[in-house]
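hiii so my PI (J.) wants the whole complex modelled not just the main chain, which honestly fair. so below is everything: two entries, each one labled with what it is. i double checked the lines twice but i was tired so who knows lol
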Amino acid sequence: MPTNRGFSSIEKWLVRKVQSSVGNPPCEFVLGGTGVASASGSARRFQLLVPDRQTLVKLALDPEVAFGDGYADGCIELRGDLVEFLETVLGSILKAGEGTWFSRLRSRWMEWWNQNTLLGSRENIHRHYDLSNDFYQLWLDSRMLYTCAYFPNESTSLEEAQLAKMDHVCRKVQLQRGERVVDAGCGWGALALHMARHYGVTVRAFNISHEQIAFARERARREGLERQVEFVEDDYRNISGKWDAFVSVGMIEHVGKANYKELGRVIHRAIGDTGRGLVHFIGRNFPHTFSPWIRKRIFPGAHAPALSETGDLFEPWNLSVLDVENIRMHYARTLEHWLSRFEVNAGRISQMFDANFVRAWRLYLAGSLASFRVGALQLFQIVFAGAQCQQIPWTRAHLYEEPLPVQRERKWMTAAR
Amino acid sequence: MPTNRGFSSIEKWLVRKVQSSVGNPPCEFVLGGTGVASASGSARRFQLLVPDRQTLVKLALDPEVAFGDGYADGCIELRGDLVEFLETVLGSILKAGEGTWFSRLRSRWMEWWNQNTLLGSRENIHRHYDLSNDFYQLWLDSRMLYTCAYFPNESTSLEEAQLAKMDHVCRKVQLQRGERVVDAGCGWGALALHMARHYGVTVRAFNISHEQIAFARERARREGLERQVEFVEDDYRNISGKWDAFVSVGMIEHVGKANYKELGRVIHRAIGDTGRGLVHFIGRNFPHTFSPWIRKRIFPGAHAPALSETGDLFEPWNLSVLDVENIRMHYARTLEHWLSRFEVNAGRISQMFDANFVRAWRLYLAGSLASFRVGALQLFQIVFAGAQCQQIPWTRAHLYEEPLPVQRERKWMTAAR
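here's the output for the full assembly
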């Protein structure tokens, strides 16, 4: 138990500063491993061990980034459950509002620095997705889906839930045998291959991660699907040709809101007024910048939009939004699986990278889990169609029927005359 | 068959002006009942009989309002099917864009004139909903629902579909026996009474239409539900107290986008961070003013928002959008029923009002039907919840299950720890 050596008045002021900027969560500060300052009168479930005054100053200037960097470095330690701590702090940050002037300034700077231009996107994506396929294989499901799964029941396993997610997506876009589908931001190719194999469509799948595309191509070859699925190492902005459906799962987070109108133009060019599509992305209840530490360390250039911000994707092109589903708790569940697999393999991961990397990724996964639990992040699936699309089902009941839609007849919504 | 007396060059210019302002639909003009001008080279499925040059000038200045007024007066006649004509014209107007300078000016003027202040709303609502309960009974379903129905199958009758709509709404907001619900813009009270009778909730239902409230109160008495359902003749802005759920079906169209933030404040005040709600409203694929003729003649102060515009309802209050469903073709089907019942009773209606009224309402119903068919209008149901709401189901499968949810157990989405 650390002893209270008595904080100096400047240290006390700094602690109060840090705490108030994140909405005064019930957390105790321990300085230099020996001193305890209780800046909050409420119950203290967590202790933050801060090594020195300099770290305290950094925390006061930009609490989120300083905590993230300090935690990853190992210089800041937490006593208490990490996920619970992050839930508590995220809940109180949401109420506290704007952040410090320094954090706002840094956030703006990062927005400018990590712009999602053609070149910028390539760099941003490279930094995350080209880390190592072996690393991701240690904690993702066997099919390598790195997006929110869909758990039809609370007892569904992660493997089943990722399969269910792909079917949920395919049903939502009403895939028909022989159709042509474009997949923007295809990851390691699981969805593209699933659509081809189980729904009889041909797919052109785009991704600017070199490692992911190489992996996906090898997989298509191994599964004998290389004639049905073409993996293209290129930017979504270069998608051309006409397609029956446009699908993008987990890419919009990397597009940046400045490019939503451009992405909308690409979608409309691809499906015209008669096609349909689905976008699946991390969003928010209201417009807010993405976590600056996550952008600095994990996802440069990322943004999670509020629904109103996604209007630019559809509205300038007279695309009809047909269905929006928010499955944020499914992402919390998905992240529980990922985090626990990550912990099981933490030893092997620290042999591939270093301890700083392991702690940074632990914080990223735990922080994401906490964010979905407290509702700081949401997960939206939006189904849309061109204004003249004739393939709109009367109801959504077909999404919840067995057997899978590929095996049965469909009834389209037609204007009854 | 009218003969071509040869249009003067100014008349030809006016006809070209009218046609180009609405995107050159395949329509022939007949002036004074004797002359034919073919301003369009394409197939002519419709003939518009315009009595004189003055009407032509009005059409050139503001085609939509002049056509609506002329059609209602009986001075403009149409040869061809009215709904098909309106579908064709609406399709081409969508492509033509902005409208004439005069129509834009008039539209702005009407926006200012018919503002939805507390007093303005009362006047706007009075002009439509207080017309006569007997009149609406002639063409609505037996339960008097004047909003889009929900047809689980294409063969569902209007009566069944209005019942299904109410259950769809109740399931979406997950009503539980004993809960307290506020209904904003309750019409003749059908939904409030249905919720009370079949879901065991108590309801306070608001409406500023005096006739509708009187009708609803009488109905509650007759059905022995006056202790469970209170009908209040007051504006949504005066809703107070805490409620488990907020429901509003077909009111947002009359709120006006200037008041969405205020409505959001009212919703959040009513359900706090733990309740849930549903809004059901006519919307659009992109922001656009409501038809000026409909606003002039049928619905003063009306606006159908694009989804991005409805952000003001939820985002300032950290309300989570959980589910958006677009059922526009269900409104087309609903309007087919209403229009055909209206026509069956046109004789009786013209005894209650006059021929101008009958033609205006025929045009309004036909125009609405055409708008939903071509996608100029959409119908959105948005389910939302406060940020701390614990009553969010894992999936939407329960919406498509029998028996009705009131009779069975429910499983809530809970953060798994």
